[in-house]
């Protein structure tokens, strides 16, 4: 799409109801809805699902078995999610803005697309996909910067029934290859390069490197962003703008999908092995993304909503693309970073586009908090009505700063707890409707049944308690399987606590029944809201020829929430520690990406292990946290002396 020539002036003012349908409008309604959702979940969800455009209605709302697991929603319902995101709105919202795109550089012109225009762009992209051989059921990897064509490509896949697998554009060639091969993708959609702050990154070159290890990819569609000359492989690679010239048709009939057909795969890290492909379905995911968006953010018809996440993560899928578009909202996407050209960039954008709902991550707030408060105070921010937080626990200090300086004490903050696997928000305040408590995700949404369990798996009743967070009843947006390995899905989420979905998080329920998420209780580290398995980072470190063994833990980091601390054993004593550290970091960057760089690397001669050879991570975590006063009983270790050495060498 040519930038700048599609600025839609004279957008027709809307004359629709300002309150959206099936929205909970008071605390009383919340309580009623919650009660109904537990007493009669099928009636609750079918009432909501009625609001969508189905080609054929479902014959059964729900079938489930958490042992297998086997969960199906809206059985035999037929639909296409893009008809619900786009076509359905054309009559009433055709001239309403669907998408606003703000570039990395504030001097570059932004792009605005109405529902009509977005519909046309999606149809054209879908026709390009078809022209290049893509069809229903194919897996397509999307590795792209935050440009409008990314959202359009995602929707174009959904339009033709192809399964999109978006890979965040900060991942390395190795990481792309692993994901492309796991899902046997037949196509990749990418760009020549990308802008991130002051840097430009050669995206296509990374894809080319990945392709050396991929056998299944037949076509690569390249979108021009920087105007760079890139390597184009004859017969495999095509420019998107050339392909567009070959498709004259401005419409593309949407493919009919079963409610349980796969909509997308999104890879995420767990405590063991390689990242796994979380699979979401067409029908349930649609209903859940829309329902949660409307209720949590309390979006009104003429609002401008902005989520700063990248579409490479689940937050971008559910709350930049699908949720807002399903609800007929105006959604904004931003190409850049919060600190470029200066620390005021987010707030400048809020004023520029009159943003009403602003949804970001605690790590961004903490980074901006570390700067000068005048970077916020010099903007009016008076359009803001609701603020949101996602991805990691928000500490009280960051919550207060966000509330005071950004929200001017008048905007509710929705601290939304959820996961890639849950598809949408699970525990969160509903803006302005339910009570807030700093650093608490508060109450479950109607339709969500959380429980806390103890180490034996017994449900902990009552309030003022703490335990492992599980969900005991299905919800439409939940994970269906892990791609190509259903057993892994069962083991990871459904085997720890019989009959329950285990989140991997620990949580407290306070005296009022409000939830506070404490963090992961498994070997997953959350760095700036991005999940990494310790095993995944260790295996990258172990690729270094001098490394014999390593153990990785998370430690509290002021900006990132958690930082990565690696303990490394080398074959010979390290003479030039800085060089080897640099090489180890390089290995991690190569195997995973820059986002997984260890912050600290300590060389050790051994690791604290039990007699059965298990690494005592608890001890390593304590040392990394700088708390060596109470390491517990270390006498049962294989080599207790190693603990003293580790303590002495702590960074
Ligand atoms: C953490 C992101 C505390 C949690 C949507 C979860 C949170 C993991 C919150 C999922 C929150 C997410 N408060 N912790 N509001 N939101 N988390 O899959 O540990 O990238 O299990 O999904 O992030 O991360 P994911």
Oligomer: single chain
CATH topology of the domain at 528-648: GMP Synthetase, Chain A, domain 3
Number of beta strands: 30
Strand order of the largest sheet: 12-11-8-6-7-14-15-23
Largest sheet: 8 strands, mixed
CATH architecture of the domain at 528-648: 2-Layer Sandwich
Describe this structure in words.
This protein is α/β, with parallel strands linked by helices. Among the domains are: 12-78, no CATH class; 528-648, ANL, C-terminal domain (GMP Synthetase, Chain A, domain 3, 2-Layer Sandwich). It contains 20 helices and 30 strands. The strands form 8 sheets. It has an 8-stranded mixed β-sheet, sandwiched between helices. The protein has a 7-stranded mixed β-sheet with strand order 5-4-17-16-18-19-20, with helices on both faces. A 4-stranded antiparallel β-sheet has the order 21-22-24-25. Helix 11 links the parallel strand 16 and strand 17 (330-334). It is globular, with a radius of gyration of 24 Å. The N and C termini lie far apart (50 Å). Residues 2-19 have low confidence and may be disordered. 5'-O-[(S)-ethoxy(hydroxy)phosphoryl]adenosine is lined by residues 268, 313-315, 389-393, 415-420, 441, 503-505, 517, 519-520, 526, 531.
Q: Helices and strands in order, then pairings?
A:
Blueprint: H1 27-39, H2 41-49, E1 60-65, E2 70-75, E3 78-79, H3 81-85, H4 90-93, E4 97-102, E5 111-114, H5 115-131, E6 139-142, H6 148-160, E7 163-166, H7 173-182, E8 187-191, E9 194-196, E10 199-201, H8 203-211, E11 219-223, E12 237-239, H9 240-246, E13 257-258, E14 262-268, E15 276-281, H10 283-297, E16 304-307, H11 314-326, E17 330-334, H12 345-353, E18 357-360, H13 362-369, H14 374-377, E19 386-390, H15 396-406, E20 413-416, E21 450-453, E22 465-471, E23 481-482, H16 486-494, E24 501-509, E25 515-520, E26 524-527, E27 530-533, H17 534-541, E28 547-557, E29 561-570, H18 577-591, E30 600-603, H19 617-625, H20 641-648
Parallel strand pairs: 4-17, 6-7, 6-8, 7-14, 8-11, 11-12, 16-17, 16-18, 18-19, 19-20, 29-30
Antiparallel strand pairs: 1-2, 3-13, 4-5, 9-10, 14-15, 15-23, 21-22, 22-24, 24-25, 26-27, 28-29
The structure holds 5'-O-[(S)-ethoxy(hydroxy)phosphoryl]adenosine.
């Amino acid at each position: 799409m040519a930038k700048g020539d599609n600025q839609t002036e004279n957008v027709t003012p809307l004359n629709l109801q300002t309150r959206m349908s099936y929205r909970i409008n008071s605390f009383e309604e919340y309580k009623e809805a919650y009660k109904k959702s537990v007493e009669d979940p099928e009636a609750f969800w079918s009432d909501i699902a009625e609001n969508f455009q189905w080609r054929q209605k479902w014959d059964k709302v729900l079938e489930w078995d958490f042992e297998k697991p086997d969960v199906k929603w809206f059985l035999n319902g037929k639909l296409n999610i893009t008809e619900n995101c786009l076509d359905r709105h054309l009559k009433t919202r055709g001239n309403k803005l669907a998408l606003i795109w703000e570039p990395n550089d504030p001097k570059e012109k932004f792009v605005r697309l109405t529902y009509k225009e977005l519909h046309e762009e999606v149809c054209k992209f879908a026709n390009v996909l078809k022209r290049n051989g893509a069809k229903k059921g194919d897996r397509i990897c999307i590795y792209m910067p935050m440009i409008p064509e990314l959202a359009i490509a995602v929707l174009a896949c959904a339009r033709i029934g192809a399964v999109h697998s978006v890979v965040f554009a900060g991942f390395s060639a190795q990481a792309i290859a692993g994901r492309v091969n796991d899902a046997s993708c037949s196509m990749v959609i990418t760009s020549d390069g990308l802008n991130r702050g002051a840097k430009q990154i050669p995206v296509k070159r990374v894809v080319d490197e990945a392709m050396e290890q991929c056998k299944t990819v037949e076509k690569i569609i390249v979108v021009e962003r920087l105007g760079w000359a890139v390597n184009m492989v004859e017969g495999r690679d095509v420019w998107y703008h050339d392909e567009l010239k070959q498709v004259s048709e401005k419409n593309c009939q949407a493919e009919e999908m079963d409610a349980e057909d796969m909509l997308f795969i999104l890879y995420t890290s767990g405590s063991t092995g390689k990242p796994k492909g979380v699979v979401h379905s067409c029908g349930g995911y649609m209903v859940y993304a829309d329902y949660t968006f409307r209720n949590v953010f309390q979006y009104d018809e003429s609002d401008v909503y902005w989520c700063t996440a990248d579409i490479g993560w689940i937050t971008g899928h559910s709350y930049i693309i699908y949720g807002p578009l399903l609800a007929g909202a105006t959604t904004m996407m931003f190409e850049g970073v919060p600190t470029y050209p200066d620390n005021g960039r987010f707030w400048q954008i809020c004023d520029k586009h009159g943003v009403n709902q602003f949804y970001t991550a605690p790590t961004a707030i903490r980074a901006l908090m570390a700067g000068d408060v005048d970077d916020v105070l010099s903007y009016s921010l008076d359009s803001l009505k609701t603020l949101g937080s996602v991805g990691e626990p928000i500490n009280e200090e960051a919550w207060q700063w966000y509330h005071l300086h950004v929200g001017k004490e008048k905007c509710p903050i929705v601290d939304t707890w959820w996961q890639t696997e849950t598809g949408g928000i699970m525990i969160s305040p509903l803006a302005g409707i339910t009570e807030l408590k700093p650093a608490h995700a508060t109450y479950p949404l109607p339709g969500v049944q959380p429980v806390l369990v103890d180490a034996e798996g017994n449900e902990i009743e009552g309030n003022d308690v703490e335990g492992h967070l599980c969900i005991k009843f299905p919800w439409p947006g939940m994970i269906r399987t892990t791609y190509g390995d259903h057993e892994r899905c069962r083991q990871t989420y459904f085997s720890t606590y019989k009959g329950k979905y285990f989140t991997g998080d620990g949580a407290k329920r306070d005296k009022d029944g409000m939830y506070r998420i404490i963090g992961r209780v498994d070997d997953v580290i959350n760095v700036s809201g991005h999940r990494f398995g310790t095993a995944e980072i260790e295996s990258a470190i172990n690729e270094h020829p001098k490394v014999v063994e390593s153990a990785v833990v998370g430690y509290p980091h002021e900006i990132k929430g958690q930082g990565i601390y690696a303990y490394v054993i080398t074959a010979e004593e390290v003479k030039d520690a800085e060089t080897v550290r640099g090489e180890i970091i390089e290995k991690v960057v190569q195997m995973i990406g820059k986002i997984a760089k260890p912050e600290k690397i300590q060389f050790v001669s051994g690791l604290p292990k039990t007699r059965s050879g298990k690494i005592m991570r608890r001890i390593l975590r304590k040392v990394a946290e700088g708390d060596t006063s109470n390491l517990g009983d270390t006498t049962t270790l294989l080599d207790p002396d190693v603990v003293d050495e580790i303590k002495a060498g702590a960074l």
